[in-house]
Records
---
Amino acid sequence: MALPETRSEQLARALEDDICAGRALPGMRLDEQVLAQRFGTSRTPVREALKMLAAQGFVEIRPRQGAVVVGLDVRQVLELFEIMAVLEGLCARLAARRMTPAERADLLAVHAECQRLAVAGDPDVYYAMNTRFHEVIYAGSHNRQLEEETRRVRNRLSPYRRNQLHQLGRVAKSVQEHDDVVRALLEGDPDRAETLMRRHIGIQGDSLSDFVSNMSTPQAAPQTPPQAALAGALGRPTMAR
Amino acid sequence: MALPETRSEQLARALEDDICAGRALPGMRLDEQVLAQRFGTSRTPVREALKMLAAQGFVEIRPRQGAVVVGLDVRQVLELFEIMAVLEGLCARLAARRMTPAERADLLAVHAECQRLAVAGDPDVYYAMNTRFHEVIYAGSHNRQLEEETRRVRNRLSPYRRNQLHQLGRVAKSVQEHDDVVRALLEGDPDRAETLMRRHIGIQGDSLSDFVSNMSTPQAAPQTPPQAALAGALGRPTMAR
DNA sequence: AGTGAACTCCATGCATGCAAGAAGCGCCAT
DNA sequence: ATGGCGCTTCTTGCATGCATGGAGTTCACT
């Protein structure tokens, strides 16, 4: 069943990918014509793709003013981390009860790989495997809706997480937290698995918040329009509450 | 700031509303031309609206085959309830710590109104106030992202929840559960508030699951193209907004 | 009669055209 | 020089046109 993908879907995926991978920075203007030319189509599928991304919160479309990559301020990022924590926590809870033996084996394998890469020391390589680790747990929840939802929030946060692991010692701590989670999962302890996972994600939020309040602005580097980006990029340490 | 709303956004909201209110049933075909005529526009904004709804999971667009209102099977509904439980639980947890005095007063007022309507006995009227009750707690979380996310999941579930409260005694139990939640919230006990709210939502899932396993299937035929029953439901000119 | 295939028709996907609104710019006045 | 104002231009939002592919129908064949 060769499901034929429409141009607009392809574009939506490509653009989402650009945003998640940090190739399209927050605040960057997404010009319909430019994109249309770049992808060799007309503006119509581009517009439809942008509408889809807007509906998912990746871009913002201001009427008559075009689309820009959504720039989250610190507060919004922390808000998303709060959501992320409970969603991943639920994944872990359900996974503790529902993972098949094969999935458990998978989890162990990926976790072992994480440990290996943690020692190896390249945060970016670890980052990729870390993603796979979490994906295994999403799948282990056997809740497809949850899986998608969690992945979506993760993707929305990804531009703001890339540098997380570059913090000194963060990789080592991360893999240790994984280890605790894995243990709870394999022992089939849903409560503990959920709690540990929530804490694991929560720590990332905290660590980000520290990071931000130390440096004023990390790397706000807008592409085409010289100033637009910074507004959204992590700027004011307006810590909520 | 009179933000000018585009046609496509209006359409998206109107259609989402139709779906949530049960005027557009799962499986129903959404014909671009018909909608365009009904709303007095061309197909373009209709298409963009459908793309947005598709991105949010309200409709499914099969290439070259048009858009249909997504029909969730029992399993998917239960999956969404699992998500809903933790999201609402988080709302309650955060609200317990963050609600302002004014918001607490609001909560009490709405809760009192719920109690009154519960005795009055009309489930549909109670349903509306019940929604407001939960909305107050969403807002009390002081987490905008969470608020939107929770509302989105709630909306996706709404076609499947409308009849929930018609179950015998469900309204009374619901309001009792609310009462417990309110107490925890006002006492500022985040853990208890979260736990109670999770249970409150979880019960709805269970109750639905009972309901479904008793009766064969609620209403529409989901996956297999159920033909154009649409003319009837969407035929009302009351759709415009 | 049942099955299968080709044909027709039509909805969708995409391209293009056009009008309205916003951003940028230059001119004038203070 | 600076601030305000009108104009130009460009982009977006929407309408329309056209080609593709699917679904239903009809007809031939077994």
---
Amino acid sequence: MKEFVAKPLRNALTGLVQAGKIKALPERLDFDRPKQAEHGHLASNVALILAKAEGRKPRDLAAEIVAALPASEWIARSEIAGPGFINFFLQPAAFHAAIRNARHHRDQFGAGRMGGGEKVQLEFVSANPTGPLHVGHGRGAAYGASLANLLRFTGFDVQCEYYVNDAGRQMDILAASVYLRYLEELGVALPCAFPENAYRGDYVRAIAAHLRSREGDRLQRPAGALAGPAGEADPEAAMDALIARIKTALGPDYGILHSAGLDEILADIRDDLSAFGVHYDRWYSERSLMDKGAVAAAVERLKADGHCYLQDGALWFRATAFGDDKDRVLLRDNGAYTYFASDVAYHAEKFARGFARVIDMWGADHHGYITRVRAALRALGLDDNRLEVLLVQFAILYRGQEKISMSTRAGEFVTLRALREEVGNDAARFFYVLRRADQHLDFDLELAKRHSEENPVYYIQYAHARVYSLLRQADERSLSRPPAEVDLNLLQEERELGLADLLWRFPESVTQAAGDREPHQIAFYLRELAAAFHTYYNATRILVEEDPLRHARLALCTAVAITIANGLRLLGVSAPEQM
RNA sequence: GCGCCCGUAGCUCAACCGGAUAGAGCAACGGCCUUCUAAGCCGUAGGUUGCAGGUUCGAUUCCUGCCGGGCGCGCCA
């Protein structure tokens, strides 16, 4: 809709420039949607912006611009107001066009071309496969999936990826945890007490039980091979020692143990996300990165380019040369690469795959990590402006007043699956994106449960269902539905035009939300649209006897339904035709 | 201590890369169902945008300082 005004305004400004009345065009034209009806449907502050550079009074400039505006079938009138705003009042036809547009484009209404087919990679969740996803991950999942939908809808070529941290110490700890539970399954005495810092969740027992049913007691080893020296004070060191003993004792069979936990948990995560409507194009294994030597290669390259040095037996990356506040270890003195090293390799790999833009979604506690990754990218000669890092705050979980501490190892957490079963996918998806991702989210389970029947998501879905109810009613009473072409000029009421105007705001909101990477804007928009529809519905009889008026009103209603359905689809929420 | 994020109605949050009289939802209060779904609508009330300065036609938005909160500052991931 903004084009209806932007075009004549650009013409006017160009004309003034050619006539030498103003020096230059503004960098960009944007319009406000005034809150006050007296300020018109769209307002431009172009005269205020230009006034300074032109050395003119804003109101004088505005008058000149208005005088230069060509006639337009969409614009009813334009006024100069306040300090120098130009307020545009549009013809009803400008709003009717939204209805026509929505009905014509159907599920593509609101789609844009901003992305221009640009290849974007979006990585999100990427939780360590050491246990089921919890409600914190759910937020990242809902946010990432919605953002992916938004970017695709605005013309980006999006690939969603999950980075599987299947290498490293955490996986070994999981393997050790599974092994101890496995021994318990066999009824064998443990070589040590089950460690506090092992994974203690029940799912570990389940994995161990499955392992036993597959392998029997084949993985059992003599107690003497597993028991270590008692009295190790540091629990982390004790854990490392335990892992080492298990690896030695099991030899080649360690791989079976390792993948027993990984495979089962990863399958669970995939299944969970899929059921949540979150789909990935690729699951990228950290181990595969290691195995093909990509990590070593990335480190070698940093070394070759002189960005590294040896100190205390470790290999350091000179991150301070690229804006970080300290240097970072790539290769530890024990010969193992750091998480950072594989992440450098992973990001280099992403760009090598040809993505114009790479978007990472990380937990907000990783924000200190951004600088060093950017530093490494620059050191590798890559443009770190192509990397975008979005931070997602963890959801703080409450049960009533009581804050629930979440620890994966202790097995004390509410899983995403449990949440979905409790409040439903629709409510969960909607709740998660109802606020900005970089804000803390207080998730009260009691409240979520209580809201399950009076949830804001139902408010929006109900508006959608009401439209279909109208259509069903029309059929029952043998009142014809609107044909493809209806006389929208019959819609002249303020509410009807206002509702149609709101439809125009859908494509605008989509563009804005995608550009800002803020899906919550869609949720807010939908609530507003639903409210306007409910108001209209209550105030106006839709199913009137006269065919032309009924057709026009039903056309408006179906346009609303199309818009709601499209918006909900972007958020991964269903749009039921009946409730 | 240093760095990043945040302080907006009783609560949870918006506010369109500086715009006109700062908006919703929930909670509170008062109304609306023999006519298309009351999972709804209408109305009332609620604010010195943490504080103090600065930039300018104009600041919740940008800058500085202070107060308060969160996170980070490992050869962990």
